[in-house]
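Lab notebook, page 48
Experiment: co-folding of the full assembly
Goal: obtain a model of how the components sit together before planning crosslinking
Operator: M.T.
Materials (sequences as entered):
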Amino acid sequence: MRMIANVLRSLGHRAVDGVWRLGFIARFLAMVLLYSGQSFRRVHLTIREIYFSGVLSLLIILVSGLFVGLVLGLQGYETLQRYGSSEALGVLVALSLTRELGPVVAALLFASRAGSAVTAEIGLMKTTEQLTAMDMMAVNPIARVVAPRFWGGVISMPLLAALFSAMGVFGGWLIGVPFIGVDDGAFWSQMQAAVDFRYDILNGVIKSVVFGVAVSLIAVFEGFDCVPTAEGVSRAITRTVVSSALAILALDFVLTSFMFRG
Amino acid sequence: MPPSTSDSLVSLRNVRFAYGEREILRGIDLEIPRGKVVAIMGGSGCGKTTLLRLIGGQIQASSGEVRVADKVLKNLPKSDLYALRRRMGMLFQFGALFTDMSVFDNVAFPMREHTNLDETLIRDLVLMKLDAVGLRGAYKLMPAELSGGMARRVALARSVALDPMLIMYDEPFAGLDPISLGIIGQLIRRLNDALGASSIMVTHDVSESLEIVDHVCFVSEGRIVAQGTPAQIRESRDPFVHQFVHAEADGPVPFHYPAAPIAEDLLGAEERR
Amino acid sequence: MNRTTLDLWVGFFVAIGIAALLFLALKVGNLSAGSFANNYAVEASFDNIGGLKPRAPVKSAGVVVGRVASIDFDPQSYRAKVELAIDSRYAFPSDTIATILTSGLLGEQYVGLEAGGDEKMLKAGDTIRITQSAVVLEKLISQFLFDKAAEAPAAK
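Observation: model returned without errors.
Model output:
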């Protein structure tokens, strides 16, 4: 009896805690948006963050995109040639990249490369009282530290996803055309006939923007909210990566079910 | 500076503060006169730092009144609070320098944020501030390259960058070697007099602070238990002050955390087994 | 890192990011092949559309001239009502025949237009009168078997 009561109590506690946290994160987003004006007026702050989250993620995104494309090319050809339609390799590679793999895998990589770095940075600033010091110097840390990092991520994400997809298509082409010998013209023309700009590519870009907002918000929030100790920061980093991954996959399901119902 | 109506820059009247259930401050009355250096002393965890955060407006008193420069901090709009904070400087326990900026940029930070001065003027001002703490030659270094005492001095230069009327120090002597400690102590006094500011220093370093301050307050269990000039404090018969100044292990502040008598604890454990 | 080199890197990053987007739009997608910004809609009803999907191509002489905009079921005539969006660059006579075809044996289905000889051209909102339904493979096979079965006793 007592055990059941305890379980129920801890469950209720967790639920209330979750809702409370959700409310807090929503209020935090509102604050970030509210103070974004100040950070936009000084563009170089955001440019700096695009450098840290975008440019520094470039290598991992390009290399991973290439490898994903190569694998897709090999696996796709393996399956398609059984049905004698290996010319459709381009379609397979391009559609799976632009609709799903590009935005999702790029966002997962982005969360673990840039998101964790942002959490670590903000968490460390909190632990060493830099955020408090800033606040005491009458400089709002949300406007000066959080908002630029948030926008840096939001701007970088769709560009990285596009680069990932483009690199992947190139990888698929590399396997398909020069290596296996699929007809070059058929590869591109079938792809172009099947991939629709608005339906496939634009929806993919929309996905990556949504993921960018989610990952950046989680990253800055976890950093800002962390327990200001070394242990607290390392936990916050773990939470950033885990909750980003969950958020990306869950949002992907929701978006996909809205976008590709036909 | 606006005309003042009282000679106290900061005044606290019957201030209480609690973190949840735990009451930290239980009715503090404190006046910080203009132009003076005041030390607030007490054991670890007695609410000294909380006191500074109240004066800086980072937290609000549960009851009572905190006034800084004749403004009541309770429910002060954020813009007014920020206007007030521009005239305050605060030195944090470990400096809190921005780790991604050089020494120069750290000191220039408040100037760049709050003034429209052009870069050449800012450069001159920053070098002057750094010169005052003796680190003009180190302006290119990053905070990671500084020793603890140097970082503290750079942070000091940063907190006086905008020539504040009030400077707060949170444990300025913690973790410093005797030489750095002496340097920081002298700087606190010199900067206060040069700027015509007032200083509040939270510390538990008795000997060093008694050398440089004008007034000392002892805080214990959320109340001010004794205060006076350094001379008075040295002469004090108050058992708490005596214990603190002479660093005795046991006294009004007990050595033991409250517990049942040891015999009971040990025997009790035996019985349970 | 000083500010100008940082700006340079960010500029480079944004530039190649946009280039990747353009590559996706133009080379991978069919934006350049025309997603038919200017088009007109005509209707056609079929007895059976087979596996035709919205956004399937509309081809004439093998050239993509439009796309299937929507597919509806008409409860009065019990036929499928298909709306075709055709590129305004191409005009078709009003007695054009619409057929549902399959590219290859297992390929996707599309609408084929075969131009007639009428002088009047199809306008937006017009209906294509002559249509030919999709060839349903199962029907074809069962019919073939049925014919064979009917032939067999006669041959004896």
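Interpretation: The first helix of chain A runs from residue 2 to 34.
Next step: discuss with group before ordering constructs.
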